[in-house]
Amino acid sequence: MLLSTIYAVLFYLATAVFVVGLAYRIRLYARTPAPLNIPTTPAPITQSGVVLRMTKEVVLFESLFKSNKWTWLFGWVFHMAMLLVVLRHLRYFTEPVWFWVSLIQPFGMYAGFAMVAGLAALWGRRFLVERIKYISSPSDHLMLMLLIGIGASGLMMKYVAHTDIISLKAYILGLMYFDWQPLPADPVLLVHLSLVLILMFIFPISKLLHAPGVFFSPTRNQVENTREKRYVPSGGK
Ligand code: HEM
User: Fold this and answer.
1) Is residue 82 exposed (0-12), middle (13-18) or buried (19+ Cβ within 10 Å)?
2) pTM of the complete model
3) What is the rounded distance in angstroms from the CA atom of residue 168 to the CA atom of residue 5?
4) CA 200, 57, 235, 41 torsion-angle sign
5) How far apart are CA 151 and CA 172, in angstroms?
6) Is 200 in contact with 16 (CB distance < 8 Å)?
7) Distance, CA of 142 to CA of 16 (rounded, Å)
8) Which among 99, 92, 231 has a CA at the least distance from the CA of 168?
9) Are the C-beta atoms of 117 and 144 separated by less than 8 Å?
């Protein structure tokens, strides 16, 4: 029961740090002045054009595609696979499980492998491409290690050392509804959960902030209409 309590406290803390930290960062981004109109050309000339550009950026990683095909391929595969994996995990948080969450379960399984493969390739590039190796900092390596650790321990549970999913789900729903239940103590599950906790704690101070940050990039989110409309710098309050 001690273990269940420790993880429960850690999960509440991590959730608070994640939510408040992220909200704080997003507020900072939103308030940072954008003093110049600097959309990268060819740029959209209407607001709906900007929405289309941002959608292509977020869904297809368009600017990464233009800059490097290999990084784009590995990065895109990793992110899309992670999205599927995370959506697949919703089955641990919902009762009854939503229809579309049951529908994606089989794809989510393969996505686990695709996610780890993409991450491994992104990590390999930091050793094998001299130019990238030179600019890689410890945090670049550590974030990749963390995500690979989460993926590898997840796959271990799926294919090697199964955990008691029913009890785990009861534990998670218990955390959500304040009706605490015991946590299964399998080592691989504890590793998986501990790494997820670390991820939640460090997310608001890490490079992973590029996820909300992309929406605040002036070169992507500005309309190219300075001849039609006077540009007024934003933010700075
Ligand atoms: C509180 C949060 C989480 C819980 C309780 C959890 C739990 C689990 C469990 C029980 C499995 C084994 C599935 C099975 O045997 O069918 C699993 C697999 C996996 N987990 Fe997590 N996990 C969490 C968060 C995450 C996050 C944030 C990621 C990715 C960033 C992740 C990545 C994976 C992967 C790649 C697999 C293997 C493929 C799959 O079964 O979908 N997990 N997780």
Assistant:
1) buried
2) 0.94
3) 14
4) positive
5) 19
6) no
7) 23
8) 92
9) no
**What is the pLDDT tens value at each position of the chain, 237 positions in all?**
899 999 999 999 999 999 999 999 999 999 999 999 999 999 999 999 999 999 999 999 999 999 999 999 999 999 999 999 999 999 999 999 999 999 999 887 799 999 999 999 999 999 999 999 999 999 999 999 999 999 999 999 999 999 999 999 999 999 999 999 999 999 999 999 999 999 999 999 999 999 999 999 999 999 999 889 898 888 655
**Is the shortest distance between the CB of 154 and ligand 1 below 6 Å?**
yes
Q: Which atom of ligand 1 has the smallest separation from the CA of 92?
A: 5
Using N-to-C axis directions, what is the helix angle for 187-202 and 138-159, rounded to 10°? 150
Ligand 1 touching residue 157 (CB < 6 A): yes
For the CA of 162, the nearest atom of ligand 1: 15
> Burial, 85: exposed, middle or buried (Cβ in 10 Å; 0-12, 13-18, 19+)?
buried
CA 154, 156, 160, 162 torsion-angle sign? negative
Residue nearest to atom 18 of ligand 1 (CA): 154
Both tokens assigned to 29: 């981004």
Ligand 1 contacts CB of residue 173 (under 6 A): no
Q: Is the CB of 108 under 6 A from ligand 1?
A: yes
